[in-house]
Amino acid sequence: IAALQSARRILGQSQNLHKEVYLLSDFSGSAWPEKLPEIELLPDDVRLFLLPSDSDARRNLGITDARITSRLITPGRPVELLIEVFNSGHDAAEDRIVSVYLGGRRVAQTRANVPSGRRQEYRLKFVPEDPGSQAGYVRIEDPDDFAGDDRRDFVLRVPPHLRVALVGSAGSARALTALALNPAADPEAFVQVTRYTPTEFETADWGSTDAVFIVDAGEFGIGFSNRIREFVEAGKGVL
User: Fold this and answer.
1) DSSP state, 19?
2) From the centroid of its chain, how far is CA 194?
3) Cβ(108)–Cβ(126) below 8 Å
4) d(CA 157, CA 131)
5) In this structure, are strands 211-214 and 191-196 parallel, antiparallel, or unpaired?
6) 3-state SS string over 107-137?
7) What is the pTM of this model?
8) Which H/E stretch holds residue 172?
9) Spatial distance between the Cα atoms of 188 and 211, rounded to a whole number of angstroms
10) Average pLDDT over every residue of 135-154
11) Edge-to-edge strand ranges of the sheet holding 119-126
């Protein structure tokens, strides 16, 4: 009881949206008082998981990671999701169904086969139909002895446009590259191209830029290399 009360105090100071308590116990009668306190042990927004500590063999397969690995994400094109599954049970997990859901709809599925004590990665692909931020999750469909690790959430952000900075001297090379990226020069096309000279681009705001094409450009200033490195490390692209 004292441990649960301590957990309640700690969670009361937390700003996290998801609050969970895991109780590991043999659940013997001696571990609990004859009468529980009148105040509730945990608030309604806290999820409580009970983990018996007996020595019986247990069956548990959990999802330890789920992340988008695709760099270029566009509506109507496949996106790759990397899933890591860990078998903490005593026996091998065979043909366990793992599904991917996006916006409440199942979009991909595989079967997991993981030996006891081992981790296994799976790469699944699915196609987002609409732009915007979308909530998704991966779930192990078959129930086992511990359901707390059977699901992993992720967020997929599908941009409505790909904003490309085309940097180079004004001339045929830059003009032809812009034409290749957006042949119809359509202002509503997925690829939106903005042309810069090297000097203009060095002083521009890169916040809304997704990718940079450097074409027939002259020399850049001293600070450009550090800035472009940070741009790439943030997950953006440079050609």
Assistant:
1) E
2) 30
3) yes
4) 7
5) unpaired
6) EEEEEEEECCCCEEEEEEEECCCCCEEEEEE
7) 0.60
8) helix 172-181
9) 18
10) 91
11) 61-68, 79-87, 119-126
